[in-house]
Design a protein that fits this description.
Layout: H1 7-18, H2 20-31, H3 33-47, H4 51-61, H5 67-76, H6 80-100, H7 106-120, H8 138-156, H9 172-179, H10 181-200, H11 206-219, H12 225-240, H13 245-248, H14 250-269, H15 280-287, H16 296-305, H17 309-323, H18 328-331, H19 343-362, H20 381-387, H21 390-438, H22 451-468, E1 473-481, E2 486-494, E3 496-497, E4 501-502, H23 505-514, H24 518-540, E5 546-549, H25 552-556, H26 560-568, E6 578-583, H27 584-587, H28 592-603, E7 607-613, H29 620-625, E8 630-633, H30 635-639, H31 645-661, E9 664-667, H32 673-681, E10 686-687, H33 698-709
Parallel strand pairs: 2-5, 5-6, 6-7, 7-8, 8-9
Antiparallel strand pairs: 1-2, 1-10, 3-4
Helix pairs in contact: 2-6, 3-5, 6-7, 6-8, 7-8, 7-10, 8-10, 11-14, 12-19, 15-19, 16-17, 16-21, 19-21, 20-21, 21-22, 24-26, 24-33
């Protein structure tokens, strides 16, 4: 595979991404993950194929021990198609009304889709049972939901069908309900007509009509190799587009492949040799390793070859369910469905495994399946139980390894494409964030449902991961006076991301604040800075203040004082060596918590620095009241100091005020001797910037200090 994204991949991906209906199906299926896992876990508990386990549960909890778990299964798998109708229709109507700015209540649309589904599924049939709305009804549920939701939205856009009421005091919900009367009635109408037509012709269950048609098609092939290949292809083709292929072809499985297995078992009971190779246990045991798509091979490939921790996190969560052939966390979580990169291995690997397993049995390398096992039976155990031979387990190992080989290049290509796409999205996110920053507005990314929102959420997840793993670092930039003496350092957060490189520090803080993670991150910064300061003082015998930036949310936090004091108690240096740095805007916000915390910090002996001073709506009396020790000139003043007369006047005024109000001034972003000389001419004698040093790691800072000491 080349490094450039193939045009066909771009075209397919663009189509899938632009299709609101397909996106809604995918979202609806993803919403089902917790219910599927609850039902799957209960199924594992009930059907775990170890006699000793079954006997233990029976002797411990009595013969009714399965009742609780069966109720969970009934409440999840038993009504799965109903839940899918609600989640898909709600997702679709919410998405399309947002894009088209329509006033349609998604809840009304969801209930309407459910009514249409129940109508077409044959709820009026006297023989109707709840089995029709379980897993076997998924295909019809998705089809009817797509049609009903689409039709309802189209009809709701027609103004003459929208009743309006001007009743005084009526709520928005009332208006939405009234305006939906005609669209609701007209949407249900075709479903009622079709259902009546089917009943008249003896088809009370429309789902049966669909599955029976599929059965008639596959019946002509029987349990031949061609039939098995077509069966696997159809299942995974449906799966790839979000349709539960196993359930859609359940009738085929029961009538053809379960029947073949029963024949084998009867022949063995009669003392004869089994004759059927392709049986339901054959597919469950040798082909569907980890579930549809043989995705257990993908899990193993991720553990062996993936370089991204998010992918490994998916594999960690999916490992245990995959061992029991439950793979919804992979198919909907990575996701596999709707992703053209995984189209080939997901659809064609099961076909390849069908062929390899068929010929392994055909040439008597592995016995035929002579015992039925639950589809949740773990790999290797199932291979042994269904063939009564260790060669069955060895065949599973061979197929698993073959699957890993086939999935690996697609996994690597997926990660490369993800890397390129993520890098592009990050650059867009960073550009937009800097625009917010220039306007002094608070950015909001995590609530967004677009690519930037997804990138921001991933960054937050990565930040939390890297913070716990000790990936984040503190760099230190020295501050010097006109004589070249080190008068302090500023602690600066640095995060090297495995994909994006060094992350823009203000973006880190903004995302941490938006995700309510700032207290955790801030506590780490404070503790790490205190630890490093103690080490610097001990190793160099050189004492100077270290300034640590505090964010707005930290300043507002009731835990700030406790956090700082807990960190300080570990070390012996004086509090005056810690300078807590805040921005001018946060200092002047008027927030009571901020004022209270600043006062408490000064009472404890900590020095206060104000950052970015000079361009905001400042109050000098406020500075005097809160005894700020040092002001740091706004970077834009320093950058323009050589050519902008206004900047020179502002700096000169600040320096005059610093003498009368008794505070020091540090100029940041000093990069040239000419800038330094002009600032000195205006009265500023303390500097920080690349003219003297870039931000340094702690060991580099120690070397810097030793150099200046000597």
């Amino acid at each position: 595979m080349g490094h450039k994204t193939p045009k066909i991949y771009d075209a397919i991906k663009l189509h899938l991404k632009s299709s609101i209906m397909l996106t809604s199906i995918r979202k609806g299926l993803m919403f089902m993950i917790p219910f599927l896992l609850a039902g799957s876990f209960s199924l594992i508990v009930i059907s775990f194929p170890i006699p000793a386990y079954q006997n233990l549960m029976f002797s411990t909890f009595g013969e009714q021990w399965k009742t609780f778990f069966q109720l969970v299964i009934n409440a999840t798998f038993g009504i799965l198609s109903i839940m899918l109708v609600l989640t898909i229709s709600y997702s679709y109507i919410s998405e399309i009304t947002s894009k088209l700015n329509l006033s349609i209540n998604p809840l009304i649309g969801s209930v309407l889709s459910l009514s249409c589904y129940l109508t077409i599924i044959g709820i009026a049939d006297p023989t109707f049972t709840v089995n029709r709305v379980g897993t076997t009804g998924i295909f019809l549920a998705i089809l009817s939901t797509c049609f009903s939701a689409y039709l309802f939205v189209r009809l709701s856009k027609i103004k003459i069908l929208s009743l309006s009421s001007r009743t005084f005091g009526a709520t928005r919900t009332f208006f939405e309900a009234i305006s939906a009367i005609y669209p609701v009635g007209l949407t249900i109408l075709p479903f009622a007509i079709v259902s009546s037509f089917l009943i008249n012709y003896g088809y009370d269950d429309f789902n049966y009509l669909i599955t029976h048609t599929l059965y008639l098609f596959f019946k002509s092939f029987g349990d031949t190799l061609v039939g098995g290949i077509l069966f696997m292809f159809s299942i995974h083709f449906f799966w790839f587009f979000g349709l539960h292929g196993n359930n859609m072809l359940e009738s085929v499985s029961q009538e053809v492949f379960v029947h073949a297995q029963k024949l084998n078992e009867l022949l063995v009971l009669g003392g004869s040799q089994p004759t059927r190779i392709l049986t339901k246990p054959f597919f469950d045991t040798f082909v569907l390793l980890g579930g549809a798509g043989a995705t257990l091979s993908l899990v193993v490939a991720i553990f062996l070859f993936s370089k991204h921790h998010n992918m490994k996190n998916h594999a960690n969560m999916a490992l245990i369910p995959s061992i029991f052939n439950i793979n919804e966390l992979l198919t909907f979580g990575i996701p596999i469905i709707f992703d053209p990169i995984f189209l080939f291995p997901f659809i064609f690997l099961p076909i390849i495994l069908t062929i390899t397993s068929y010929f392994a049995i055909y040439f008597n390398l592995v016995p035929m399946t002579t015992a039925s096992v639950e589809w949740t039976t773990p790999i290797f155990l199932s291979g042994y139980l269904t063939t009564r031979s260790i060669t069955g387990s060895l065949l599973q190992l061979f197929n698993l390894s073959l699957g890993v080989l086939i999935y690996t290049p697609f996994l690597k290509y997926k990660e490369r494409m993800t890397y390129e796409n993520n890098l592009k999205n990050y650059q867009t996110l960073l550009t937009e964030f800097k625009l917010w920053e220039q306007r002094s507005e608070k950015s909001q990314f995590l609530h967004r449902n677009d690519d930037l929102g997804s990138t921001a959420k991933t960054l937050v997840s990565d930040l939390h991961h890297d913070l716990n793993k000790g990936v984040l670092e503190i760099y230190y930039q020295p501050q010097l006076d006109i004589s070249g003496k080190i008068i302090g350092v500023e602690a600066l957060l640095r995060w090297y991301h495995v994909i994006y490189g060094f992350i823009y520090p203000p973006l880190i803080i903004a995302l941490a604040e938006e995700s309510n993670m700032m207290d955790l991150l801030g506590a780490w910064i404070i503790d790490k800075s205190f630890e490093d300061l103690d080490q610097i003082v001990t190793d160099t015998s050189y004492m100077f203040p270290m300034s640590i930036n505090l964010s707005v949310s930290q300043l507002q936090s009731a835990e700030l004082i406790t956090t700082i004091q807990k960190a300080k108690e570990k070390y012996s240096f004086d509090s005056t060596l810690i300078a807590l740095e805040i921005t001018e805007n946060s200092a002047l916000s008027g927030n009571k918590n901020i004022k209270s915390n600043l006062y408490a910090l000064t009472q404890l002996g900590y020095v206060l620095h104000m950052d970015d001073f000079g361009m905001g709506h400042s109050s000098l009396l406020y500075l005097k009241d809160h005894t700020f020790d040092t002001l740091k000139l706004d970077g834009s003043l320093v950058r323009d100091i050589l050519h902008n007369a206004v900047s020179q006047e502002i700096v000169a005024s600040i320096m005059q005020l610093s003498q009368s109000l008794d505070f020091k001034v540090i100029a940041e972003y000093v990069e040239t001797i000419e800038q330094r000389n002009k600032l000195h001419e205006l009265g500023c004698e303390q500097y920080q910037g690349y003219l003297y040093s870039k931000p340094l790691k702690i060991d580099e800072l120690k070397q810097f200090i030793q150099k200046f000491k000597s």
